[in-house]
Structures are given as structure tokens and as C-alpha cells.
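Ticket reopened. Same input as before:
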Amino acid sequence: MMTVVPIDPETTMRDKFQPGAFVGTVLFAGGVLDSVVVYHGISGCNAMAQHLRGDQIPNGGYVPVIPTGFLETETIMGGASKLERTLRTIATGKPKRLVSKPPSCVWICLSDAPAVGGDDIDGVAKRMSAETGLTILPVDNPGYKGGVARGTELALTKLLDEVVKPADGPQAGINLVAPFLMGSANWPFDIDYLVELLEAADVKVNLVLSRNLAFSDLKRFSSAEANYLLTYDEMPDFVRKSDAIGVPTWDEPLPLPYGVGNTEEWYLALAKRFGNVEKAKARLVSEMADVQRLLARNYNFSWMASFVSDKYAAVCGPAPFAAALTRYLFHDLNIRVKVVGLWSETPQGIEKAKALLEPLSDSLDFTVLEDPTYYQLGEAVKKANVDFVIGSMQDKPLFKGLGFAHLNLAGFYYFNNYNFVPWPLAGVKGSLRLFSEVCRVVEDAFYETEAWKKLAFTHAGDGLGD
Amino acid sequence: MSRLKEDGYRWLPLKQAWEALPAIDTAEANEMFQGYEGVWCRYIWTTTYFQQFVKDIVVITHGPLSCVASTKNFKQTHYSLNSALPFAHSPCTNMDENMVISGGSDAVMDTLRRVDREYGPKLILITDTCASFMIHDDVEGVIRDAESEVKAKVIYMPSPGFSGIQGGKAMEAMCPQTALIMDPPEKTDAEAVNVLGVYYDTVFSESEGRKHSGNYDAYAHLIEGIGLKLHRYLNAGNYDYIRSAPEAAVNVIHTAMWGYPLAKAMEEKFGTPWLKRQLPMGFERTRGWVMELAEFMGRQEQAERFVRAEEEKLLPLFEEARRMLEGKVFLVECSRNSQAKIGEMVAYAHLGQELGMIPYIYQVHPQELKAQTDDVETFVDIEGFNPQTLIGPYFYQQPVSVEDVMEDLGVDEDQCVYIYDDVFPYAKSGRFDPSNVARYTTSAQMKRVKGASFLGVGYAGTRVTYQGLIESVKAARRKSRPTMYGRVWSRTPFEFQYPKGKKASAA
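Engineering reply: fixed in the latest deploy. New output:
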């Protein structure tokens, strides 16, 4: 049975890790490699934007995030002049070069202080675009406008408003939208692999929005047959505007392809709709053969696959990833997931994840917490007394502090997720890495390390023989 | 003319550099330092300083969830992972656009009631953020209205992010608020000493299971070594621990930037006297710190015996370090990223000078330097240490090149020792790498040594720093086999790519 602890509609109170809208735009812009982000706001928000921009770096590229230097004075006096000066410096390289060459596009992001203060970023963008010739896309994305999904949507709608032309030719393939919102801390390597996987099934990937693009690539947005959102959060403005230019959004509720079972379902559904199912099946069989070659008759695999079976776990994270991981642990590894914490920016995100978990309710008893506070989640996990928790780096101290083993697979690549091997967690191929990661938590959850400390051999000392 | 000088940089003694700079947040400073952004913000400082370092306090954020994320994203998580600090529950009113327009007082009230009921903390602090502060939500009014029904003590901590961009400025405003949590003392203990100015640390020792010591053990050793008691170590501990701090006879200082503002507030509110020396590392600084306390408490003879005994134990290592380091240029890089931290790095510079090195401080942004008045006062005016410091445009807080610094100083790899703070230290295999330039990690984020303070304070901290510097010089003798880190950053990652016949040092 699936027991749901719903969001209390009477309160706005939350405690979860949800960076603001400007971070969504920065993550998006970070995949458009010949662009630059000008960040207009307070340094605390700037630090977060700078940090999370780093998600696009492994096997991607470095997009500068240049702050305008918005200080307390600008909160009072307005900061438009600093924004202008920064844009002019980027364009001219004077008084000193800030970027190696003028970028194809400058995104303006802002934080709460200049937004509440009313800095006119649209007006500055227009003026400076006329003066410098730069393509400047101001995005009104302070933290109070929403989370990362909303910031991504704001960037996308800005593109549709100002860059993309309506479809006027043949359309084929899909635009994969918001890979960084899948909720996997390994998302950069996951999305690179998923593109390869889709193309093997003749699913044309028109654009990954965004990952390793040039700004000019964005103009072919409307060559796609459809968009496919990799987040469960709704993006109504984007969907409406994209519809209007002839690119609908395919909204099939699918589990993300983490684990073999989820991958089979996800891959064949996409291949059926946009590509060649037989080729997809052949790819699955081929990858599974590789996996079997590694794992069949492998003592270590047999040991661990048997060891983790029937153990108890909790999962928390962004709704798409948490739902997929829950299904993976139960279906693929026969692990009993007792607590699932689903975080989402919109109610639709939670509902989609629940719809994918509901079929488990006949065969598994578990509790789903909708958008829980960390406190609620900690209490639920204590009550369930699981063997380990899969979450993100930000909640590791919570669960370890409560005495639970913890594995950080969810969230963003930043911070302190030490994934340096460009291998996916997603797909059949990724199930090797995913299972290896799960094995890592076994040391913490089951090895009797505390007993070793207490029972360690000690020299008998001078008392020997007394 | 060197590249640095061409770019408008110059060396001045610390105090003269500070005096030469325009006041922060002025038109003159804005013109002179284009793109100065600062580091963190008042909100982030406040939430970490109160929320996480004190385990039974809950801080309510009145603002967007993004502000909570900006703290959890790095600081809170890192402090838990590497500095023995607890997970920080961070309930938030989740301010959205409607709340910005209509006001969020009702959400503050709702969140306050829920936190009091569900979390049951002894003390609740309510912080605001840029947005909630700018729309003038009446948080104090909410607290007054809730007083009769809320069990916890509730205090409002104004903390809009924009009001503390420069580190020193934020601490001046924020740290005195710790005194709001304290109770007037019923009695004072004549032997009790508080250590103020702690950030990034807690009251939890290796003997209790901490993997790497903080600074608590170091201060306990210094204070107990002269027959006194370490009473409170702040900010850390829990609510009851903090509130009874005024029972101490005197406050001493870990770091001036964090410690002076609270010391002044406690003196004003409770009459607690305080002493000014900070960061006891190296012979001279530690002796000065201990003797200042001893003189105040009338323990000079005991302190003299204690200090002499500790110095004798360290003397062979000190002499060995001095033999290896004397005459070298000490490249003290404050932080390539934030350019904000100076206190600990200048203290390391002082330690280096004692070993015969010539310290040069750089990569501190002039606006951060200007804001850290207390540090300048204690280093220069009280301790008489006034090292050369690099000021200049630091355009958009871009770092200066270490190699440009070396060119300007006219020194080569064998004449330098490099210390740094924070992530992204400089390295390029074949030119500047631990394999050819002595490099020692002094970053508070990353320096962890078993059995000693990670900030290098106290005698154990001094010992590991001497040891670390010696080992760094030895490591740089190899002149080949550069580190992977240096190779990753270099255009000549392999030694076969170096000019023929040359080793790493000469490529």
C-alpha cells in the first residue's frame, strides 16, 4: 500500500533545497557555450549561481558568470549604471578584457534586491544592445519568482519570444528539455549517454536544452517534432508558446531510465513515438549482453545482489529521480523502499511521480511524503528505521546524524559529488554504475565498523603473564 | 616595469595599504574597483553563524527558498561535512511574488507557530532576506503578537543580504547580536575565560569522536596551561551554553573580525573585559596571546613556565624549519576566489616571518581589506606586524597571477614558499607546482591534521604548520613528476613536453 502524506495546503512553510529561478537560467545558459551570463544582484546569490554553473563543465564547457558588483548603495540608488558598465566592458574589452571575445549572447540574470528595487533590466538591455551590437537577453528571474524549473522556463520563453522563429519546414526529432532537472547528481554524463541511446533507436535529438550548444543552434528549435521535458514540473508558459510556433510538448508520464526496468519502459516508449522500436530493442539486448558478460557467474555480483535483497531503504530527492530510484531499488534489486520524499516546484511534479509509484502499492508498503521538510523526512525515516537512505549531498548530515547510512546520488553535480568517471547512472549500461554506487553504501550500512574499534586487538603490555 | 605594476598594482605595508584605500560602498570605491562583488551576504553569514553553530536553535528564514538554498548549497553542507557541525533545519516562509506584493507577515506567524510546535526548539531566530526586508514586513510585530502562545524564546535578527557584502561590515553588524541571547550573570567566575571570534567550528573534540580537531582543544590547552578554565567558546554549543557566557572573568579573541564586535557588545552590556590579541600561532604570537591573558589574570609566572616548556618541546622543529626557510619569499595568497579572508593568512605570514621568510600578502580585495578594520588594528597597532600587501584594481575580482607576483618580486621557484586559502589554488605543471615550488595548504576549508587545530592555532597547530612547511620544501626538491592537479591545469602536462634537457622547474 502507498500511504501519502500530502502537503498541508494551509501553510507556505517549506524546508528543502530549491535554488531560485536565476539558477535555472544560469544552468540553462551554461549549456550555450558561446554565451556569457551577467549576474545583477547580491553576492550570496551570485556564489550559488557560480557554483551551480559548474554542473555544465564536465565534458561540457565554461560559460562565464560575470557579476555587476551590486552593493548596498545600489539597493538604495539603483544599479542600472553598473549593469550598463559591465555590458559595455564585455562588448569593448575596455578598460580591460573580461571575456576572450564578445559572446554570441549575453543573458542577464538578477537577484531579489534589484528586482524589488525596480532596476529596469529590459531597458538597459535594449539600450546596450543598440549601443554595442550585443545580443542581450534579460530574464526577470529573481529567487522569489520560483525555483530552478521556473528559471529554466523563463529562459526558454525568452528564447521563443526573441530568438526562435515558427516552424516553416520539415520537422523531425525531439528537443530534450532541462536535463539538469532530472534530479541525478550525475546528470551531465547521463544526458550525454541518453542522447547516444536515443539516436541508436533513430530518435533524432534536435536539441538538448541545454548542453554543449552554440547560440546559433537555438534557432533550429522549431525543427523538432516535439519537446520532451526531463523534469516532471510543468512549464505552462513555455508549452503554450512552443505550441504557438508549431512545436508541441510530448507529455507521456514515463519513469526516468534509471535501472533496467525503467530503461526498458522509457526507451521503448520514446522509440515507439519518435524512432524505431526494433532498433531500440536491439540496443537493449546488446547492452544487456555486455552487462551479463560482466556479471553472470561473477561471485562478487552474486554476493552483493543477494545481500542487498530484502533490505530496507528510504529515497528522497527531486520527484523524477526519487520516483525512478524507488522503482529501481524495488524492481531491480528487490529492496523494500519504506519512505519516499518527493520534492518538486509544482504540484504536477509530485502528481506525476506518485502516478509512477502507485503501481507498486500492490506489492510494497511504503509512505510518500509530498514536498516534506527535512524535519518531517527525518522523523519518517527514524520511524521506518531503514538500513540506508539515498538522497543528495545536502541531506547527508541529516541522515548520518540520525544514524542512517547515506548515499548521495540525487540533486546536482555540484557540490562534492565526486563523479569523475564519465559513465552514466542511466540506462542498462548505467545500471552497472548505479549498482556499484549502491554497493558503496553497504560498507556504511552493514559492515560492523564500530564493533571493530571496540574489539581491536591490543598488546597485552607489561601485565602479560601476571 | 612588471606586469603587475603595468596593471596598476603596488605593494604597501598593511596599515598604509588600508589607509590608502577609499571607504567601502562609496562612489570613489565603485569607480576604483569596477566589478567588486564581495562574497556571500549578510543572510548567509547570519544563518551559518547562529543556525548551525548552535545546535538547539532554529532559524526561520523569511524569504524565498532560494535564500535557504544559497546557504545549504555550500556553507552549511561543507561545515557539516568537514567541521563537525550539525545538519541545520531551515524552515522558510517560502516567499513568492505574491508575498512580495502583498506582504508576508501572516506567513511569518504561521511558520513561527509551526516551528515552535513541531520542532520544539529552545530558541527561535527569525531572519529576513533582501526581499522581505525591502518590503518592510514587520517581523518584530509578529514576534510581539505571538509572544503569549509560543513557548520558545524568539529573537529577530535583521539580515538582508545586501547589508553585509564586505565581510568585516557584516560581522560588525551581526556578531554583537549574540549578546542578545545572553543572560546577565548572577556571578562571575574569576578563573573563567571565554574565547570569542569562532566561526566554522564547534565545541566537539577528538576525544569525543571528531576525526580532526577544531580549535577548541588548542584554546583549552593554552588556557588550562596557565591554570584557568575555558568557559565558553563562541559561537558554538547550545542555547544554555551561550546564555551563560557573561559568567566569565574575561573574553579573549580567536579572530578579530568575528571576535571584536561581540567582545565590545559584551563589555557594554555585561561589563565583561576583553583582550585584543588574536590567532595564537607560531612562537611569538602564541607567547603574546598567552602572556596578555596571564598578565590580565595575574598568572605571569605560571604562564612563563608554561610557555617556556612548550617552546622547548618545539624548538628543534622550529630550528629545522628556520634552516630550510630562512630568506625565502613567503607568497601568502589570501583567496583566489573570494579575496575576502585576511586574518588567518596574515597570522600565517607572521609565523613565516618568525621563521626568517619575507611575507607578501596578495589576493585580498581592497574593499575587503578596508572593511576589516579590526584585523588591521590588531596586527599592526597591537602586535606590530605590518607586512607588504598588494593593492590594485582586482578588476571584477579576478585574481592576479602568482607568476606575475614572482616576476614583480624578482624571485624564482627555489626562493618561494606558497600558501593559499580556498579552492582553485594556482598550479601549472612544469612551471608552478608542488613538485617545484614549496606549497602548503593553509585553507581553513581544507587543512585537516589529526591532533591539531585546522587553523593552526596553539602549540599543536604551530607544530603541524612547521612540519607541513618543512615537508613542502622537501617535496619541491624533486623538480619532476608534477602533481595531477598541476598537469590538469597545464599546457605541458607531461615532462616529455618540457624543453629538451630541462626538468619541471625550467620548462
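Chain B touches chain A through 65 residues (CB under 8 Å). The two ends of chain B are 23 Å apart (CA to CA). Please confirm and we'll close it.
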